[in-house]
Amino acid sequence: MSFTLKGRIESRLAAALAPLLAACGLAAAATEWWPLALAGTMIGVGLVFEVFLDRRLDYQPGWWSLPLAVAELAAIMGIVYALGISAPLLVALAFFAGSWLLNLVLMHAVFPYVRLSYGEEGGELGRAGVAIAVLVLASLALFAGVALAMQPPTVRLSAGIHNGPLVLDQAQTLVGEPGAVVRGGIVITADNVTVRGVTVVGGESGIEVDGAHNVTLERVQISGALLDGIHVRRSSVRIRDCLVHSPAGQYGQGIDISFAFDLAPSLVEGCTVMGGREGIVTHFAMAHVEDNRVVGTTLRGLTLTEMSMAVVEGNRVENALGVGIYCGDYSECEIDDNSVRDIRSDGASGDLTRMGFGIVAHSGAKAEISDNSVSGVTASTKAFLGARITGE
Amino acid sequence: MSRAQECAIVGGGLAGLVGYATLRHRGLTSAEVAVFGTDADPARQWSVRAAAIRQRHMRSESDGHCAPRSFPGLAFRASLRRKSPIPLVQSWLDCYHPTVGEFLEHVEEVRAESGWDESFRRGRVRRISAADGAFQLDDLGRFRHVLVATGHPGLSVPPELQDEPRAVHAYEPHDYAEHVEIVGAGMAAATEWLNALGAGADVISVRRREPERRPLNLPRQLFTRRGLAAFHSTREGERQALLRGWSTPSYPAGRTWDEPVERARKAGRFRVAAGLNGADQVICATGFKCGYEHDPLLAGLVADHGLPTAGSWIVLEADSTVGSLTDGERTLSIAGVAGQWAFPAADTLMGAKYAARGFLRRVEACRSR
């Protein structure tokens, strides 16, 4: 069809009305903003594409809708990822596909059926088109305004030492200026908290997250905690680009995420953990553990246990005592593309499961592994007590 | 003076049918619309010409139909009828062209569904006179709104061939001699090359201009507001130049057209020449006469009412109405080839719809309704 720019925009916005309403319903049902953020991104990308295409195409054949949809989807997912919109991938894809199909049906059948001159007017919808376009854009502006108004406040932590523990019991974004240090730990008990760019020294745990959802820890540096570097209970967290260094206590872990199986999956990504008994450990939780580096642990490098479900991908585990990556106690683990090396045998423990193994499955756990690089170990993989390792 | 009736359509061909179906779709009754024509079958003229050139498929696509709504188009209908998605997929890929049989079947459906025969009155209108907020059509009655859809004013034959016994027009029934010269380079000529080659003839294509290769009569954007907005904003001289430029002969690209010609060329059975050289038969694939002056009804209308013209075109408003004879109470619109000033592809089904919808908007906005 040979669209006019006005026709492209009116048709696009009219076709976006139903997905926008669906996103409203989904947002209300899930009490989450991501459906609206996703719909807004789709509409925004769609409009940018329309303007771009209008300048280049006098005529757009029907079959172009397929490659254009792929390009649009790529742009949308890129923006979703860049903005950190927490839309589940499958739901986002289904939402896009449904909206695209609806768009096709509307533009090729419904609009030409309802409006006699739809084609010859280049996709313009007359007064109804303008009204719908205004409605959709006004709705988006309203949602964006409400979302912005409901954003938690941003608190800036100035450079220098602040005595803790800091207790964050309200939604907020805590941003540390360069040189901002909290001595004595941070405790987070509220949903929708982000801590960014803060150094934490000491404390029982460096950062403790308890009963909180949608918590993000970015570029935090933790050292000298008595117990765990980051201690997460009954919470869902995203931890990115952190450094956890040398827990001071004998029993401390680097990052411990536990008892959150019924909550949204947690993410640990791009972190470096040095020392501690276990570098990153989950108990009864769902987690993605990706692209981290764990060095010099005294019990295991990465541990997924007590019926956890975890994806462990792209991590480097080095110089651990006993076990590199451990999937235990009826957990289900997908372990891909990791590098495990120099795992020392823990002969002193007398524990035959700790004799310097790269990847261990234990007590009924199921580990599916692929493309891992394991070196400097007694054995690359070992399964004990009814556990199973597949894909070797 | 008798009370003016509502609408008249002057011309009983495909453009007339499109106009009629559009009016009926929006609620005008058969009693409110009179159609004047010489044959009750709206496809008669067209199908005679299509048969003469052995046309099998339409050049138009799924949207090239007579129904008032664009959807469902012919591809969708064909998919339903054949219980196959293939026509829809072809349409999606811009390679669906309905067969002539399918198209004629569709015309029959529209004719029946619209109630065409209830409104059809046999007779040729010779004069349209504007008077007292309406139009007098000969002694056939007064009508407030008139859509003129008289079609092409006649076949065009080059002057040097008018008395030539070897010559036949492509749109007249004919067979093929052993050596054939085909004058012209448009869609009809290209069809005739293939027909004559298929019949075993040697073919000489006589042409003054090289044809353009495009899927439709005109670039696609000229069928929608995208191209029309710029066209409508042109001044008179520029618009004439554009219309003349777009009259270059054309036919679609593709192997269907090229391969038989190429094979024949290699076998010495097809060649191009600038002039005639005495073959057994000359087929004039030279289309139709151009210009309102060849249509007695339109020529009279222009002369009687001093309508503005530009070259061979009647100057029309963007919605195909005649501005000086259209106001809040009456409408005179021109559909078909004579409506090119408003819609360059006026002699297509899309053009007929464009004029019909413009006419409908005027009728619906009329103060007397």
Q: Tell me the count of domains of chain A.
A: 2
Main beta sheet of chain A, described? Answer: 11 strands, parallel
What is the CATH architecture term of the largest domain in chain B? 3-Layer(bba) Sandwich
Supply the helix-strand structural class of chain A. alpha/beta
CATH architecture of the largest domain in chain A: 3 Solenoid
CATH homologous superfamily (4th level) name of the largest domain in chain B: FAD/NAD(P)-binding domain
Describe the structure.
The complex is a heterodimer of chains A (392) and B (369). By secondary structure, chain A is an alpha/beta fold. Chain A has 2 domains: 5-149, no CATH class; 154-390, Single-stranded right-handed beta-helix, Pectin lyase-like (Pectate Lyase C-like). In chain A, 30% of the residues lie in helices and 33% in strands. Chain A has an 11-stranded parallel sheet with strand order 1-4-7-10-13-16-19-22-25-28-31, with no helix packed on it. A 10-stranded parallel sheet of chain A has the order 2-5-8-11-14-17-20-23-26-29, with no helix packed on it. A 10-stranded parallel sheet of chain A has the order 3-6-9-12-15-18-21-24-27-30, with no helix packed on it. In chain A, helix 1 (5-30) runs antiparallel to helix 2 and helix 1 (5-30) crosses helix 5. Chain B is of the alpha/beta class. Chain B folds into 2 domains: 5-154 and 289-365, FAD/NAD(P)-binding domain, CATH 3.50.50.60; 159-211 and 248-284, 3-Layer(bba) Sandwich (FAD/NAD(P)-binding domain), CATH 3.50.50. Helix content of chain B is 34%, strand content 17%. Chain B has helices at 14-25, 44-52, 74-82, 86-92, 100-114, 116-119, 187-198, 225-232, 236-245, 255-266, 296-305, 349-365; strands at 5-10, 33-37, 120-122, 128-131, 134-137, 141-148, 167-169, 179-183, 202-206, 212-213, 250-251, 270-273, 281-284, 309-310, 313-314, 331-334. In chain B, the strands form 4 sheets. In chain B, strands 1, 2, 3, 4, 5, 6 and 16 form a 7-stranded mixed sheet that branches. In chain B, strands 7-13-8-9-12 form a 5-stranded parallel sheet. The longest helix of chain B has 17 residues, at 349-365. Classes of the chains: A alpha/beta (392), B alpha/beta (369). The interface between A and B is medium-sized, with 23 and 28 residues.
